[in-house]
Amino acid sequence: MRTTALLLLLTLVSACQPSAPAEALLEDYLTRLARVLDVERPNVAPVRPPRMPPARVLQVQIEPVSINLLEFWGFRQCGLSEVLGERNSVLGRVMVPSQHLHMDGRILQRLRHCQKMLKDDKLLTLTKDLMQAKQAQWPSRYWNATVAAPELRAFWSPSTEPLIPGQEASYTPAEAALGYLSSLPRRLSENRWPEQQALEARYKTLEQSELGGRLLVSLELGHHYIVAGNRMLKQATREKTLCPTPGLHKKELEYARNVMVKVFVGEVQPWLAAVNRRSHSLRAEYGVLLNRQAPKLRRKIQPFEAELAALQSQFERALRAHVEHWQGLFDTCGSKARP
User: Fold this and answer.
1) For 22, 43, 159, 261, which has the most beta carbons within 10 A of its beta carbon?
2) Residue 263: phi, psi to the nearest 5?
């Protein structure tokens, strides 16, 4: 009995939860559309936005590079032993990918310094070998700390609410953070490796915003609702239920026009357009980051990348079709789709 009561309570609480503002806006639009078109409202498909591949699929295992104690001691002459000591400390062994990347950048820059100042041939040879080993690891280290990083997974996580109509959020900080990560290979080659605090600030921006996930949910939600609206408009156009008979004015067509102008054009379309703009801008910046990756590693993310492109394309096609269906509705009735 107690179990049944608890389940009933949870059901009631769930039913009372308010819809997200974007979903409420789209719900209201379909409800009004069904009423003025005098057609049955179809079911809206559930939201299942793309998800990144599991971490175990994306992350690359990297074998550590080690030197013996005498070699370690010899590198004190050029300051490398200090950096290596940090890397091999207790904290260094539990670093997250972004910290590993920052440490490897410091090591590579210090190795370049050692090549210029060391005189010992054995140490110079070891420096060259370590440089080659670290450079060979760089693509995987960079991949683990950018595309496959936990912060990027949090950024793209779709388990969030859609963007709020009229408050769609600025993507400038997130795009700037992605651009900063894209610039790291160039910064390393130019000996302008950033301080750890500056690098971690960009990761924090991406992890805490979750804007990528909110955008995916918005695209998916908007697509499904507009597809449902397209079915309703097609049915009304096919059945000509709003068309006036010769010599008679039919007010239902004007009611439909009001819904198109005040609700779709005035409220729904601005949100859909804002979502579309942000998606184009963010995907362009994300694409730059993907282009910085080794081709063999980028293949790991290609399924997710393809899903993002497909979702955007579906969204845009549905939106274009919606405008065309409104136009077709009025054309069929010998009227114009304008106020």
Assistant:
1) 22
2) -95, -55
